[in-house]
Amino acid sequence: MISPFSLQEADWDESPEKILLPPTDPNAEVMQIPGYKLVYVNGACPINYRVYKADSMIGVIFQHITHWSNGVDSLRYAESVDAAVGLDEFMTMTGYFTATTEQPFTEEELLDIEFDALTFDEWERLKRYVPETRDLVAA
After folding, report:
1. pLDDT at position 137, please?
2. CB-based contacts of 54: which residues, under 8 Å, 6+ apart?
3. What pLDDT is stored for residue 2 in this prediction?
4. How many beta carbons lie within 10 A of that of residue 95, not counting itself?
5. Residue 9: is its pLDDT beyond 60?
């Protein structure tokens, strides 16, 4: 049975390593715009770029023949920087970015998260977790 999710290496047009290059890689195709770095992913029309602010990826923008877009709103932008700023403002406004001072989840909080959404490190913490039994009362 052929699954639509079973891609073989020969099915890739480009190497997955090339697509996922960070902006610091010398082989990455990087476009500098004020406040952001655009890293080419793939495509011809639209051309897909990952958008980095400082060292963090904030999303993806698209270069069409006549305009730029960012996928989070239905606006058409004349310049790449406008699409990147629109993406950045949207992500900030929706609270997608969290403060770096945020404390990690406690083990009790991790138990309330869907298991598929946990990271490897969170799984490891839960495996070692032993709940305290002092609050339990025998019935």
Report:
1. 66
2. none
3. 46
4. 7
5. no
For residue 38, the one-letter residue type is L
Model-level pTM greater than 0.85? no
Whole-number Å distance between alpha carbons of 29 and 56: 17
Q: Please, are residues 14 and 42 in contact by the beta-carbon 8 Å criterion?
A: yes
pLDDT tens sequence across 20-44: 677 777 778 888 888 899 988 888 8
Q: Which residues, listed in sequence order, are joined to residue 51 by a DSSP beta bridge?
A: 38, 59
Q: Which residue has the tokens 């993806």?
A: 60
What lies within 8 Å, CB to CB, of 98 at 6+ separation is none
Mind listing the pLDDT tens digit for each residue in 99-123? 444 567 788 888 888 877 778 888 8
Question: What are 68's strand-pairing partners?
Answer: 63, 77
Task: Output 44-50 pairs: Cβ under 8 A, ≥24 positions apart.
Answer: 49/80
Task: Assign 30 to helix, strand or coil.
Answer: strand
Cα(84)–Cα(78) distance, integer angstroms: 11
Please give the structure tokens belonging to residue 79. 């310049």
| Strand order, beta sheet including 47-53 | 30-33, 36-42, 47-53, 56-63, 68-69
